[in-house]
Amino acid sequence: MNKLIFTSVTIALLIIIPVTASGEVYIPDHEYVGFYDQDGIFTVIGGVKNNEMYPVTPTITVNVNDDGNIFSHKYKFSPIMPAQMLPLKLKLPEITSKNPILESPQISFKQTEYKYESGYILYDDSLILHDDGRMTGTIKNAGDKTFLNFRIYALIKDQNENILDVANSQRFGIMHPGETLEFEMVPDSKIVNEIHSYSCFSFGDESVLPLNADRNGEQYTFRYESGVWFKDGKFNFDSTELEMYSLNSFVGELNASFEFPQSSIHEDFEVYVDDTKVTNLQSLDEMGNWHVYFTVPGFYQGDVIVKGFHEPDGTVEVPEELDISNMVYVEMTTGQVTNVIAKTTEDSLIIYLETTEDGILSFTTSDFLIKPFSDGNFFVLVDGEEIDSVNYENKILTIPYTANTEKIEVYGSYVIPEFGAIAMIILAVAVVSIIVLSRKNSISYSLSNV
After folding, report:
1. What does pLDDT average to over the chain?
2. Above 90 in pLDDT, residue 400?
3. How far out from the chain centre does Cα 121 lie?
4. What is the structure's pLDDT at 359?
5. pLDDT at residue 393 above 90?
6. Which end of the chain has fewer beta carbons closer than 10 Å to its terminal beta carbon, N or C?
7. Which structural domain range is residue 359 located in?
C-alpha cells in the first residue's frame, strides 16, 4: 500500500536543472536536484537512466558553483541494466555558501557485463509501504547467473514527486538463479512524514570503499565498509597514526569496519573519535590483514584517528600459497574452473580448469588481487606456454585456451590476496555481533566484453 502524507516541509535550495547525456545514458531533468538537507549538508540526488540495449557502467561528474568556486566530484556507478534507472546520492560537506548552484553533470559510460540480468522486483502484495516509512518487498533472480554482494536501491519521493532521498536495502551476499528474497528499506527518520512513494527500484553493487594515504612517500591503500563516509586519510610524521575526516549524517551511531595491510604482528590499534578514545575490536584474517571495528556517533562530523601502525619489521607471515577458489569468480565459455591459487612469493594466480573444447576465460582484475606490470600488461602461460593473444581492457582480462587445457598462470607486479570468508566475532561482554568485512568487488565478468 501507499501512504499519502500531505505535510509540507520546506527543503532549502532545491534546484532542478537541465542535464547533459552521453548516448542514451542520461539523468532526467526532474531527477537531478541539489539541496541542503536537514543536517545542513549539501546533497545531490539523481536517477541515472540507461536507454541503451546493453548494461552500462556510467561515470558522473557532479559540478557545483560554490560562490564562484567550482567544485567537481567524479562518481563511478554500479552497472545499470537496460531500461533501468539507478539512484545517485552524494553528500558534499565542502559546499558552504548560501546559494550554491548545481551545474550540469558530465556523463560517460562503458558497456559492461550482464551482472543483474533478469533480476527484478515483484510488484505484488509483498511490496508494502509501511506507516513508519519502511518499504518491504520481494526480489527474484529469474536468470541463470548467480548475483553476488548487492543491495536494492530506490528513490524516495513526496506527494509532488519531489525526490527526498535515496534508499537502500540490507546487503545480500548471494542470490542463486530462481531464488526469491525479501528486502527492507529503512528511511531517515527525519523524512518519514513526507514519504509518499518509492520508485526506480534497481539492483546495485555492494562495495568496500578504497582509500589512499601517503605514507613515507608511498601510496598506502586500505579499505572500509560503513554507512559513515570517510575521506582525506593522512599519516602523521612517523606514520604511526592515520587521521581521516568522517561524516555520519544519521541520527543513530553506525559501525565502521576497516581493513589494513599488516606491517607488523605487533600492531595494536587504538581509535579516537573527536579526540576521545573509543572501544574497538581488532582481528587478523587468514590472509594476514588487520580488521578494526568501531562505532561513530550519530550526526558526527569531524576527525577519526587510528593509532598503532608500525613500520615493517619482518614479523608479518603471509602464506606462500593461498587457495582462493571461493573468493574469485571466473567465467569460461566452455568447461569449468576447478581451483584458483594465489602464489604470493611469485606474484601470480594459478587457475586450474577442465575443458574439452577451445574457449575463452575472463575475469575482472583489481589492484587488491593482482596488479599488471609497469607496461600495463600481464605475463600469461597456458599449460606452460607463453601466449600473446591476451586482451586486457577496462580491467577485464580475457585469455583464450585450447581444448584439454589444465592450467593458466597469470603473473603481475604483485599479488594481494582478497578478503577471506565472512567471519563472525561475538563480543560477549557487550552482547554485540559484528560482521567481519567480506570480500567485495567480486571478480565477475562478461563475455559480451570479449
Report:
1. 78
2. yes
3. 21
4. 93
5. no
6. N
7. 321-415
C-alpha cell at 127: 511490496
Answer yes or no: is 311 within a domain.
Answer: yes
- Cα gap 34→80, rounded to integer Å: 22
Dist. CA 209–CA 207, nearest whole Å: 6
What whole-number distance in Å separates Cα of residue 346 and Cα of residue 211? 26
Q: Which three cell numbers stand for residue 389?
A: 593473444
Tell me the percentage of the chain whose pLDDT exceeds 90.
24
Sign of CA dihedral 167, 297, 305, 293: negative
Distance of CA 423 to the CA centre of its chain: 19
- Picking from 181, 195, 77, 186, the residue whose alpha carbon sits closest to that of residue 138 is 181
The number of residues in the chain equals 450
What's the burial of 418, exposed, middle or buried (CB within 10 Å: 0-12/13-18/19+)? buried
Phi, psi of 449 (to 5 degrees): -90, -5
Query: Considering the entire predicted model, what is its pTM?
Result: 0.47
- The label of the residue with cell 604511526 reads 240
Task: State the pLDDT confidence band at 206, using cuts at 50, 70 and 90.
Answer: low
Please provide the DSSP assignment of 258-282 as one string.
Answer: EEEE-S-TT---EEEETTEEE--EE
Number of domains in the chain: 3
Does residue 244 sit in helix, strand or coil?
strand
Q: What is the pLDDT of residues 37-61, one digit of tens each?
A: 776 778 888 888 888 878 888 888 8
Residue pair 214/222 in contact (Cβ under 8 Å)? The answer is: no
> 323-332 burial, b for 16+ CB within 10 Å, e for fewer?
ebeebbbbbb
Residues 364, 411 share a domain: yes
Statement to judge: residues 303 and 357 lie in one domain: no
